[in-house]
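Sequence only, no structure available. Ideas?
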Amino acid sequence: MKRIILITGGSRSGKSTYAEKLALSLSSTPVYLATARIWDEEFRKRVIHHQARRGPEWTNIEEEKELSRHALSGRTILIDCITLWCTNFFFDLKADTDQALTAAKEEFDRFTSQDATFIFVTNEIGMGGTSENEIQRKFTDMQGWMNQYIASQADEVILMVSGIPVKIKEDKRLKIRD
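Reply:
I predicted one. C-alpha cells follow.
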C-alpha cells in the first residue's frame, strides 16, 4: 500500500533525525535517497555527518533529480531533501520557476507511482522574511508551491519545531475506529 509522509520545518529543527527514526520504525532495511549536489567543502562535511548517523541497515542512493530511475516498490524510502532536489531543477532550468516546478511535480508523480512508503524531508524556507534577492524570492516561491503539492498528496504531514514533531495532517487509514 502506497503511503506518503512529508516532514517539514526550519533549518536544524530535527527533520532528518526524526525522519531516520521513523523510517527505521517502519522497516529494518530502509532506503536513504539523498538528493544533494555537493557544492563546497563545508557542505561535504554536512553530508558526511548525516552519513555517519546511519548504520549498515540502510541502502544509500545518491540521486540529484531522477528519483523515478530507482525501482523501490515495497520499500520504505527516506528522501532527504526536497529543498536540495528542487534546487537542482531550479538552477538546471536557469531559474525558470514555472519550468522547474512543472519538472519537479512530474518527477514526483512518476516516482510516487510505485507501491512504497515515501518519507519526504523538506524545509519551510518561506517562514522568514522576504529576500531582497530576486533569485531567492523566485526559488522560495517554487519551493513553497512544491511543498504544497507534496502536502496535498501526502497521507501524513509533520512539522518539526525545535525537535518536536507536530502532526499537521494525519493518515486517516491509521486511526482506530470504535
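The mean pLDDT is 91.
Hope that gets you unstuck.
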